[in-house]
Amino acid sequence: MELDEIADQMRLLSQVMEESDYDMRQMRRQTGLLRERAGVNQRMQELIDRRDSILSSFQREKESWHDEIKVHLGNR
Protein backbone atom coordinates (compact mmCIF):
# COMPACT_ATOMS: atom_id res chain seq x y z
CA MET A 1 0.00 0.00 0.00
CA GLU A 2 1.12 3.47 -0.74
CA LEU A 3 1.25 6.15 1.90
CA ASP A 4 -1.54 8.09 0.18
CA GLU A 5 -3.83 5.06 0.31
CA ILE A 6 -3.05 4.55 3.99
CA ALA A 7 -3.69 8.23 4.70
CA ASP A 8 -7.02 8.06 2.82
CA GLN A 9 -8.06 4.99 4.79
CA MET A 10 -7.06 6.65 8.05
CA ARG A 11 -9.14 9.73 7.18
CA LEU A 12 -12.09 7.52 6.26
CA LEU A 13 -11.72 5.56 9.49
CA SER A 14 -11.57 8.80 11.47
CA GLN A 15 -14.72 10.08 9.76
CA VAL A 16 -16.57 6.82 10.45
CA MET A 17 -15.54 6.97 14.10
CA GLU A 18 -16.75 10.58 14.41
CA GLU A 19 -20.09 9.66 12.85
CA SER A 20 -20.36 6.67 15.15
CA ASP A 21 -19.68 8.88 18.18
CA TYR A 22 -22.31 11.35 16.99
CA ASP A 23 -24.82 8.52 16.47
CA MET A 24 -24.13 7.19 19.97
CA ARG A 25 -24.65 10.65 21.49
CA GLN A 26 -27.92 11.00 19.59
CA MET A 27 -29.10 7.57 20.75
CA ARG A 28 -28.22 8.41 24.36
CA ARG A 29 -30.08 11.71 24.07
CA GLN A 30 -33.14 10.03 22.55
CA THR A 31 -33.08 7.32 25.21
CA GLY A 32 -32.98 10.02 27.88
CA LEU A 33 -35.92 11.81 26.26
CA LEU A 34 -37.89 8.57 26.08
CA ARG A 35 -37.21 7.85 29.74
CA GLU A 36 -38.23 11.39 30.64
CA ARG A 37 -41.41 11.08 28.57
CA ALA A 38 -42.21 7.74 30.20
CA GLY A 39 -41.80 9.37 33.61
CA VAL A 40 -44.07 12.24 32.61
CA ASN A 41 -46.66 9.82 31.23
CA GLN A 42 -46.56 7.80 34.45
CA ARG A 43 -47.00 10.95 36.55
CA MET A 44 -49.88 12.11 34.34
CA GLN A 45 -51.57 8.73 34.76
CA GLU A 46 -51.14 8.97 38.54
CA LEU A 47 -52.74 12.43 38.48
CA ILE A 48 -55.60 11.21 36.29
CA ASP A 49 -56.19 8.27 38.63
CA ARG A 50 -56.18 10.63 41.61
CA ARG A 51 -58.62 12.98 39.87
CA ASP A 52 -60.92 10.05 39.04
CA SER A 53 -60.79 8.89 42.64
CA ILE A 54 -61.68 12.36 43.93
CA LEU A 55 -64.52 12.71 41.41
CA SER A 56 -65.86 9.30 42.36
CA SER A 57 -65.72 10.23 46.03
CA PHE A 58 -67.56 13.49 45.38
CA GLN A 59 -70.18 11.64 43.34
CA ARG A 60 -70.80 9.18 46.19
CA GLU A 61 -71.00 12.06 48.66
CA LYS A 62 -73.44 13.92 46.42
CA GLU A 63 -75.66 10.85 46.12
CA SER A 64 -75.57 10.44 49.89
CA TRP A 65 -76.64 14.07 50.36
CA HIS A 66 -79.46 13.62 47.88
CA ASP A 67 -80.64 10.53 49.77
CA GLU A 68 -80.54 12.43 53.06
CA ILE A 69 -82.46 15.35 51.56
CA LYS A 70 -85.10 12.99 50.18
CA VAL A 71 -85.48 11.30 53.58
CA HIS A 72 -85.65 14.66 55.32
CA LEU A 73 -88.22 16.06 52.87
CA GLY A 74 -90.20 12.86 52.98
CA ASN A 75 -90.48 13.04 56.79
CA ARG A 76 -92.29 16.39 56.70
Account of the protein in words:
The chain is an all-alpha fold and 76 residues long. Helices cover 95% and strands 0% of the residues. It has one helix and no strands. The chain has one helix at 3-74. The chain is rod-shaped and about 110 Å long. The mean pLDDT is 93.
Cα-atom radius of gyration: 33 Å
* Mean pLDDT across all amino acids: 93
Q: Give the class from helix and strand content and strand pairing.
A: mainly alpha
Oligomer: single chain
* H/E element order: H
- Major sheet details: none
**Helix content, binned percent:** over 70%
Total of DSSP H or I helical runs spanning 4+ residues: 1
Keyword list:
76 residues, 1 helix, mainly alpha
Please give a quick description of this structure:
With 76 residues, the chain is mainly α.
Give the topology, please.
Layout lengths: L2 H72 L2
